[in-house]
Amino acid sequence: MMVVSTCLIVYSLPKQAKFSYEIEKGRIWNQKDLISPYNFAILKTQAEIQNDRKNALASTTQLYQLDANLEQRQIDGFKNDLEIKWHNAGIDDRKKPGYVQIGQALLKQVYDKGVVTLNSKYQQTQSYSLTILQGNIATEKNTADLFTKESALTYCNQALSKRSDIDKTFLLDLLQNRIQSNIVYDDKLTARLETEVLENISLTRGMVQKGDVIIAKGSVVNDEVYQKLISYKKAFEDNSRINGDPKLVLAGQFALVAITIALLMIFLYLFRKDIYADNRLVSLILLVITAMLFTLSMAIKLQLPNLYYIPYCIVPIIIRILFDTRLALNIHLLVVLIAGFFVPNSFEFAYFEITAGMVSIYSIKNLVRREQFLISALIITFTYFVSFLGISLIREGSLVDIDWYNFVPFIVSVLLTLLAYPLIYLFEKVFAITSDITLIELTNTNAPLLREMAFSAPGTFQHSLQVANLAENAIYAIGGNALLVRAGALYHDIGKMENPLFFVENQNSAFNPHDKVTYEESAQIIIRHVYKGIEMAQKANIPEIVIDFIRTHHGNTRVDYFYQSFLKNFPEKIINENTFRYPGPIPFSKETGVLMLADSVEAASRSLKEPDEKSISALVDRIVKYKLDQNQLKDCDITLKDIETIKAIFKRMLMSIYHVRIDY
């Protein structure tokens, strides 16, 4: 599995040599003198390229097409219009030829000069040059030398105003309908010309010759030197892609990734053997790591504008919620180490992502509310902002020169980090893992099983709540998963719902159903609540890690009351002790061990007739000693010091529950 993951990561990574130097504008060059090993062109900056594009477009002539036939069509149309409207004009018929001649002459003058429709892109200027195409002939003109439809009509109006022998209104009305643009903008040809001009723009300016000093040791990386270094990096990567040995690059990548994955497995073996021994959990961890690095590789291959769009913090958040803080931090550091070899400005990248990852882990150390995801996102954003501001100030030395738009990718990254929530749910279902989020949902007393227990076995429900409080405080003091032990405590006795009246906490009258059955049957009914609880929990899809509390909360102890009663009343009979013994297993973790003690202590405390400091202290000591003598805690990782801490907490809480006054 480790080999498969390593191969998948290496396969997805870009196969090119890594540039040897970190390039940061404004910093002192502490390396040795950098000598150019070959000739390379100096790349223009994006600002220079944009300026060249702007100037090229501004100098490009707009292309227009001349419709040479429009003039005659409009003159013919004018004559037809005049024939139709003449009879209603009330003008002497002898003047008709003169009207035709004047109108025709004006239209000819207008069209000979040309009527153009101005391009909206250039209307902010008073006039602009253009090229008029007529067949294969191109003529350079300026819009100032041409008519628009409005200026052509004004010209006709002025010409007719000088003649007193005609009806200007009648003739001008005919002319305005026949003045159309005979010079029309050709957007397709112009766009093609602009594309050709832009494609011919040079992306470089000048050359660095082989043997030239690119930058001397101790020099400041100013704008000019920075551009040379960027150009050298591009030339180096292009050259290595052509001349480098891909097999050696592959071998180097495999070695780096293999060491990283091996370190992870060593960490699991030394500190989390429970995960190391579970292929399912190891597969999940390797899947998360591989998926993140694969995403980075795809972003590099697709030339994403900024690699900070990728939600790197999603990995530590997922691992933290599904596992623990140490593992999350360890994995995040390893992922950033691998990614740092394939992103530009590796130090900056590492600083951004390590700090943000650490903050994301710390901000959800104790996940008890859903809104902590949003709070965590805000804290991560703030961390990114402070880091961005600090690095920008070091690089630019001025607030004015900071390009705040470059912070947008970090905001997008944080928003994408919120995808951790649905991914956690998916991983829980696929890999059968229980996260703190699921435990929070299970500890809600409105959960179906708990709500049912509150109605059908209210005494048991109250007992479970008290046990949960005792166990949670104890495990918090000695170190462990307090949320898990609370969930286990709330569900450990759900099997009692099958026969609630057979358990003393649910009996509210003098009637005791055990009086009507044998001691063996009573013991089996009591023991059965473990089997029934497991069955009910599995049917309700309660996680196995919580069901373990049901299995182990009595370990393999005897139901002593009925066992001793049997011995007392039937001393002559041979008894099978297993009839009165719980099936086990015994507790095997801090959490299950603490629950067993809390359950026994809380149940026994209900039998105290006059609870006081002395009786409670003696009760707790006796119960804990009995469990130890019965070897019920031998598989738990609980020390003698932990035992003393647990007893002290139980005593203090029970005295508080029973309102015992403490002597000062």
UniProtKB/TrEMBL annotation:
The protein's matches in InterPro entries, at most eight in alphabetical order, are given as: HD/PDEase_dom, HD_domain, HDIG_dom, Metal-dep_PHydrolase_7TM_extra, Metal-dep_PHydrolase_7TM_intra, PgpH_phosphodiesterase
Segments passing through the bilayer: 248-269, 281-300, 306-322, 327-343, 373-395, 407-427
**Entry keyword set:** Membrane, Transmembrane, Transmembrane helix
Q: Which domain of life is it from?
A: Bacteria
Q: Which Pfam families match?
A: 7TM-7TMR_HD, 7TMR-HDED, HD
UniProt cross-references to PANTHER family, sorted A to Z: CYCLIC-DI-AMP PHOSPHODIESTERASE PGPH (PTHR36442:SF1)
Record protein name field: HDIG domain-containing protein
Species for this entry: Mucilaginibacter panaciglaebae
Query: What lineage, starting at the top, does this entry show?
Result: Bacteria, Pseudomonadati, Bacteroidota, Sphingobacteriia, Sphingobacteriales
